[in-house]
Amino acid sequence: MDQYVIKGGNPLHGEVEIGGAKNAALAILAAAVMADETITIENLPNVRDINVMLQAIENIGAYVERVDVHTVKINGSFIHGFTVDNEYIRKIRASYYLLGALLGKYNNAEVALPGGCAIGTRPIDLHLKGFRALGAEVEIRHGMVAAQARALCGTSIYMDKVSVGATINVMMAAAMAKGRTTIENAAKEPHVVDVANFLNRMGAQIRGAGTDVIRITGVSKLHHAEYSIIPDQIEAGTFMFAAAATGGDVTVKNVIPKHLEATSSKLADIGCRIEEFDDAVRVIAKRPLKHTQVTTLPYPGFPTDMQPQMGVVLGLASGTSIITESIFENRFKYVDELAKMGANIKVEGGNIAIIYGVDRYTGARVSAPDLRAGAALVIAGLAAEGITTIDDIYYIERGYEDFDEKFRSIGGIMQKVSSEKEIQKFKLKIIS
Q1: Coil, strand or helix: which one is 79?
Q2: What is the pTM of this model?
Q3: What angle do CA 272, 277, 282 make, to 5 degrees?
Q4: Residue 324's closest CA among 300, 293, 355, 303?
Q5: pLDDT per residue over 191-214, tens digit each?
Q6: Residues recognised as catalytic
Q7: HEC secondary structure over 353-395
Q8: At residue 120, does pLDDT exceed 50?
Q9: Nearest to 390 by CA among 401, 400, 402, 404
């Protein structure tokens, strides 16, 4: 099992390039099979979830050509099956996007129930409600979601709760339904907009993405397109928080600053200096960090995927901070691991963390409980005194490309290892 071993205590300095947004890319890859012409997708992150999705698409017959690690060509005209099920696709949450894509194109889809990180209940009832409203019959059997329709017909759909996944999934299915569809109380996240822009590039007629009402006029066919995925706001925010935790000065490049406004605002609140450019954000953390309060909310609020990273930083801020998690009920699993490094955090009611700032963290052996919590523990290790070893980094590699290399490029002392012997070599190298 691979691990990260980290020597902390060095302020991070320099520039780091951010890759394509994983959450947008997964949905866009699924949507690409809806065309019977070749689709070229650029700025694709080279991470585990992406590779699993590409394998699943290839397994149902679509043509997949990996031009390079960040570019792929897909042609859905060769699809010969509508059942998506293997041991890998069950492990990623975004497998459900193939439901909307295949149902929209073929009126038929059967996809394994999704997995992903165990950060709380994430039911797909809103997805199924949307499919049924469009005219599909949907049932869950043998661990699979099966959806069929004689024809999908446009309708008005109200999302009982703001859901990024359901908004994207229903939007994909409705793109090729007969007539007009309205999605009310739609999610506004940047990757919802990115998927809508991609579908429109293929010939769909979608308006209002980025607002709470999306209007879709169904089309009979989608065509060739070339598209570049937006930068990953969560990867960008992770490096921004790493700069804050280590007292560093880091410029994150290839970003859309507007997508980072909630993150930038909180960093400014706790005493960091933020400089914004056309496609970059600089975080300068030269002053002691101050406490604050944070509540996770749908976009444009503070993202739940940045909550663990924020928690690590606030653990080093003076005074008492409070984080309220309003999206997922099991997102504080990193707290027990962070306590091993000296953090003083009390979780109440499952969704509120009271954080009493400490002067420093100390290195320890910890395990990544999920993707974002794992990234947060890397930040803690980079800020800590001494050596930190992080187990179960396969969670982190689901969503971060070349994570250790990027941190080394801005002064982080860390290495990916696969044995105790390599850990000892790292420690000896650091001492010498």
Answers
A1: coil
A2: 0.95
A3: 30
A4: 293
A5: 999 999 999 999 999 999 999 999
A6: 117
A7: EEEECCCCCECCEEECCCHHHHHHHHHHHHHCECEEEEECCHH
A8: no
A9: 404
Report the alpha-carbon distance of residue 267 to residue 273 in Å, rounded: 8
Distance, CA of 141 to CA of 134 (rounded, Å): 21
pLDDT value, residue 200: 98
Decide: 193 and 205 in contact? Cβ < 8 Å.
no
DSSP string computed for 116-160: ---SS----HHHHHHHHHTT-EEEEETTEEEEE-S--B--EEE-S
Where is 281: in which H helix or E strand?
A: strand 280-284
Residue 181, classified by CB atoms within 10 Å of its CB into exposed (0-12), middle (13-18) or buried (19+), is buried
pLDDT band at 432 (very low <50, low <70, confident <90, very high): low
Structure-token pair, residue 213 = 């009402």
* Main-chain phi, psi angles of 331, to 5 degrees: -100, 5
CA distance linking residue 154 with residue 98, whole number of Å: 19
What token pair was written down for 135?
């005219």
What digits encode the pLDDT tens for the residues 142-184? 888 999 999 999 999 999 999 999 999 999 999 999 999 999 9
Structure-block tokens of residue 307: 């909550």
CB-CB contact of 309 with 379 (8 Å): yes
Q: What percent of the chain has pLDDT over 90?
A: 91
Q: Could you tell me if 373 and 336 are in contact, meaning their C-beta atoms sit under 8 angstroms apart?
A: no
* Tokens coding 329: 């009920």
- The answer to whether the CB of 92 falls within 8 A of the CB of 115 is yes
Largest CA distance in the chain: 70
Residue with tokens 């065509």: 223
Reading the block at residue 392, the tokens are 């179960």
